[in-house]
């Protein structure tokens, strides 16, 4: 069935007093996303949720993004958004639901736990020009493959892992040692 985050009333979307109507637009995208999701139009729902969250970031919308990705069988993306939702979630019941989704998805993705010494390095996959995927420590959910994990931290030399091969349902740890 639909999870409770999908039945949230729009009043629970944070309202930011902005003269430009950004909050109203985010609210509209959230409602349209819910309608599309209920109709089984998961790609359309995803587009609306992403637009809503871009306008006004909200962990409930992030949860819905994860759910839509999961329904589209886009498991690495779903895992990533569930992990983001978990970071912001304070409600114990909601946290348990998200953790269950993450556990269920773990068998459908390749997981790379990235640690950096010192902690806090910005993490990249394969190439820096493709953009970062967050800060270490971080768990990356990826399709099966071989990856080089890169770390960058101000005041340190960049660190690059050896190529690491990981399959669906596997979990590996990469430790990046950054030097001055």
Structural class: alpha+beta
Shape: globular
Q: Total helix count?
A: 5
Report Rg: 18 Å
Number of strands: 9
Please state how the strands of the largest beta sheet are arranged side by side.
3-2-6-7
Please tell me about this protein's structure.
- The chain has 180 residues and is α+β, with helices and mostly antiparallel strands.
- The protein has five helices and nine strands; from the N terminus they run αααααβββββββββ.
- The strands form three sheets. A four-stranded antiparallel sheet has the order 3-2-6-7, with no helix packed on it. Strands 4-1-9 form a three-stranded mixed sheet. A two-stranded antiparallel sheet has the order 5-8.
- Helix 2 (42-55) packs antiparallel against helix 3 (59-71), helix 3 (59-71) runs antiparallel to helix 4 and helix 4 runs antiparallel to helix 5.
- The longest helix has 17 residues, at 22-38.
- It is globular and about 50 Å long.
- The chain starts with 21 loop residues before the first helix and ends with a strand.
Summarize the structure.
This protein is α+β, with helices and mostly antiparallel strands and 180 residues long. It is built from five helices and nine strands; from the N terminus they run H-H-H-H-H-E-E-E-E-E-E-E-E-E.
Topology, element by element:
Layout: H1 22-38, H2 42-55, H3 59-71, H4 75-88, H5 92-106, E1 110-117, E2 122-125, E3 132-135, E4 138-142, E5 145-147, E6 149-152, E7 159-160, E8 164-166, E9 171-177
Parallel strand pairs: 1-9
Antiparallel strand pairs: 1-4, 2-3, 2-6, 5-8, 6-7
């Amino acid at each position: 069935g639909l999870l409770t985050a999908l039945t949230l009333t729009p009043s629970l979307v944070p309202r930011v007093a902005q003269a430009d109507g950004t909050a109203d637009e985010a609210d509209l995208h959230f409602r349209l996303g819910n309608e599309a999701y209920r109709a089984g139009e998961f790609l359309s729902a995803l587009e609306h949720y992403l637009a809503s969250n871009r306008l006004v970031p909200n962990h409930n919308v992030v949860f819905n993004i994860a759910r839509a990705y999961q329904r589209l069988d886009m498991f690495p993306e779903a895992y990533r958004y569930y992990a983001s939702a978990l970071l912001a979630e304070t409600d114990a019941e909601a946290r348990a639901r998200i953790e269950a989704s993450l556990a269920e998805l773990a068998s459908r993705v390749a997981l790379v736990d990235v640690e950096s010494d010192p902690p806090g390095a910005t993490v990249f996959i394969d190439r820096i020009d493709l953009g970062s995927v967050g800060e270490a420590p971080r768990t990356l959910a990826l399709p099966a493959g071989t990856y080089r994990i890169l770390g960058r931290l101000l005041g340190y030399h960049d660190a690059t892992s050896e190529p690491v091969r990981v399959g669906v349902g596997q979990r590996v740890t990469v430790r990046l040692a950054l030097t001055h």
